[in-house]
Specification:
By secondary structure, the protein is α/β, with parallel strands linked by helices. The chain contains eleven helices and 14 strands. The strands form three sheets. Strands 7-8-9-10-11-12-13-14 form an eight-stranded parallel beta barrel, surrounded by seven helices. The radius of gyration is 21 Å and the shape is elongated.
Length: about 350
């Protein structure tokens, strides 16, 4: 349920509504718009919510039930687009942001080289995995904290903020020391303990869609993070598992406009993991921007043939620079910048 306050509602009237919500055993979440303030009522309590009781309070314009199981992620709760700051830009705004870098941090020299290359081509932020969850336990698993330190050094040299995956709730405080954005990977989208931990951190979070998860599943996962008052959340469509074997996954282009209608949260696309082959990354990136994606996350490696992970889907710096030019043209065609 949401309580929509009147335009001229006083702070005292809002405080009384919040007190009533908490006394009924629920949690309140405030969304302040340009003209009105909306108070979300979430949680469970033995005390039933009675719309007429809240509707009769001073300063309340109306009370609206939210039928969707996700409340805070819903546009009913927050009608305007949420904007998440990133390197002087705002994800969800007019600019299409681009996060780029290698799948994994292989070494100090390699990550700095990649960072300088994507910076020159116009990337907004640097991606790179210090902890690498892999299908095989014998594959390269990343350098851990040392990898985070190399990422931080690359940030110092280029000014690019860091986006990196966190896999374990116990590692959230350490990763927060180095990273600007905590990435929750596809395999962890429904790791609810981890979702609670990144929500509590109040750090910016990039949540990837699980490989076999519905859009509603994704929004319910987002709800775990938002429930902690952490509204700095970016959603990422990265392809889903289907019967098709021609690509690594099937890129769900539909998800972008659907998510943009259902939620106020910014939505970016990951063409690299969606298709798994570098020759398809550029056309899918163009399609994602045309469909309304607020950004892209692209794997770029100085020498994909020598990459320790996901080299087959990585672009060279030269191809990434070419892709950026294409993305800029598509963004301009749909009234945006990149």
């Amino acid at each position: 349920m949401i309580v929509v306050m009147k335009v001229d509602a006083s702070s005292e009237q809002m405080a009384r509504v919040i007190t009533r919500i908490e006394s009924d055993g629920y949690k309140s979440h405030i969304s302040e718009g340009d003209e009105r303030t909306i108070i979300g009522v979430v949680g469970e309590s033995p005390t039933p919510l009675k719309e007429e009781n809240y509707g009769a309070m001073e300063g309340v314009d109306k009370v609206v039930r939210i039928s969707a199981p996700y409340k805070l992620a819903s546009r009913t709760f927050h009608p305007a687009d949420s904007l998440v700051p990133l390197n002087g830009s705002k994800v969800g705004g007019n600019k299409v942001v681009v996060i780029a870098g290698p799948c994994s941090v292989e070494g100090r020299t390699e990550i700095i080289e990649a960072a300088c290359a994507v910076k020159e081509a116009g990337a907004t932020a640097l991606r790179g995995g210090a902890f690498k969850p892999r299908t095989s336990p014998y594959s390269f698993q990343g350098h851990g904290e040392k990898g985070l330190q190399w990422l931080a050094e690359a940030r110092e040299m280029t000014g690019l903020p860091i986006v990196t995956e966190v896999m374990d709730p116990a590692l959230v405080p350490m990763v927060c020391q180095y990273a600007d954005v905590l990435q929750v990977g596809a395999r962890n989208m429904q790791n609810f303990t981890l979702l609670n931990a990144v929500g509590e951190s109040q750090h910016t979070v990039l949540l990837k869609r699980g490989m076999s998860c519905t859009i509603e599943d994704m929004l319910m996962a987002a709800e775990y993070i938002l429930a902690h008052g952490n509204m700095k959340l970016i959603l990422c469509e990265r392809g889903i598992r289907t019967f098709e074997k021609a690509t690594r996954n099937t890129f769900d282009l539909n998800a972008i406009p659907v998510l943009k209608r259902l939620t106020h949260l910014p939505v970016i696309a990951d063409p690299s993991h969606a298709v798994g082959y570098s020759e398809y990354v550029e056309p899918v990136a163009r399609a994602a921007v045309a469909a309304g994606a607020d950004g892209l996350i692209i794997e770029v490696h100085p020498n994909p043939a020598e990459a320790l992970s996901d080299g087959r889907q990585s672009l060279t710096p030269q191809r990434f620079a070419s892709m950026m030019e294409q993305v800029r043209r598509i963004a301009e065609a749909v009234g945006r910048t990149a």
